[in-house]
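Q&A log
Question type: sequence-to-structure
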Amino acid sequence: PLSLPRRERQSQSSSFTSTDVQEGAPVLSMLQPRPVVLQGMQVRRVPLEIPEFDLDHESLHESQENTLMIEEKVKPKQYYRFWVLPGRWLRVRYDRLALLALLDRNRRVGENVFAVVLASLVAFLGFLLLLQGFFRDIWVFQFCLVIASCQYSLLKSVQPDAASPMHGHNWIIVYSRPVYFCICCVLIWLFDLGGNSQSLQPISLYGVTFFSAHFLLCARDVVIVFTLCFPLIFLFGLLPQVNTFIMCLLEQVDTHIFGGTATTSPLSALHSVLRSVLVAALLYGFCLGAIKAPWDDLHVPVLFSVFCGLLLALSYHLSRQSSDPTVLWSLIRSRFLPDLDSRSPEEPPLEIKDPLPEKLRNSVKETLHSDLVMCPLIAIITFAISASTVFIALQPALSFVLYALAGAVGFLTHYLVPQLRKQLPWFCFAHPVLRSREYSQFEVRDAAQLMWFEKLYAWLQCVEKYFIYPAVILNSLTTEARAISAQPEKLGV
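Response status: OK
Response body:
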């Protein structure tokens, strides 16, 4: 008797819903759920799990009518083919994310070849040091651990690394640890070879002895301890990534040995060093011939004068060139290889053209045109001054005058004038001593005027750079070359 009213209510509600749908079909059609087509999904009906002791036959029938739509994704079987031999391959059952979590993804074939060569070199150098007995007892295990870490970093690197200057994946940091390991192993081998060699003579510079046997053996032990500490060093990121290290090393060599300037990339650093080495090799023959030639009080060898002229001319040319070779290569390519820059007809034309590359090429072109005139002129003037024996006849008074003039002009140009132009000179004055004309104005209404001390500063720099320093260098070269030619046995010439 209780179930009958329930059925009547259900029939009434169903009839009420059917009449409402006929009257307001456009309105309710928007609210009714629509079927969604899911690709790669499997839909199945799962009945509700309801205990038997709580339901009678009628309620069990109703529960079977109510079902849930469970969307279950079909997992496709994915694998990669690893080619072992032509026509033979192995099946690697990994998806893309699992494979990236296991191994680093190389972008080109050259990276794979370089990684294999680097791993082989790590193994060979490590075996060489173990064979020569540089490590004993527990340190053999530690060194093998360092070798394994260097080789494993080529397969899966730490991302992000403590020494990485960028966010995300850094592919250069992968090669840092193996390259550092190879450098340290080569240094250990060279220091041990030099320390045990009997023919190596020590070198003294300003009273300090370098490259003695004891010095080389101590340096070898320091590098050994440094190599064993690789896990801690790379954990805290104490070494820069390998391209930064190479750039800084080549930059210091070019700056302190050849007098170069700063660089912006490993390519520019390598270009600067190779350029300086090429110029030094070109001048080496003239310098050696000038030293072997006979000298007297009223005669300077012609080869030495030619060497001085070429030295100043080439130094002037190198000082005006950029350390970045890309702009120079772009200029050469646009002049002699224009087909490389031409666009194919299928490519769409560029609506906006960047004017910066053309301006850089024009700047390099004007610099080369100026050097084409100035370098021969500087070489001729320097040759005439060196051949006039002025640096021999006026010794030793000329040396004292040039050194005192260089010191006075340098002190005035690089210390005194900049200090007087500061806001608080030496922190002893409340205002600059050398003030601009607009210093006391609240609002500047006209263009800034060039003051006399600014003109003096520019002239002092030009005189120091183009006259005083070349004269000091020519004076030192002449006096030292004359002294060496008198006693050539000291240098083995």
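Response note: The beta strands are 41-47, 67-73, 80-85, 88-92, 203-205, 208-210.
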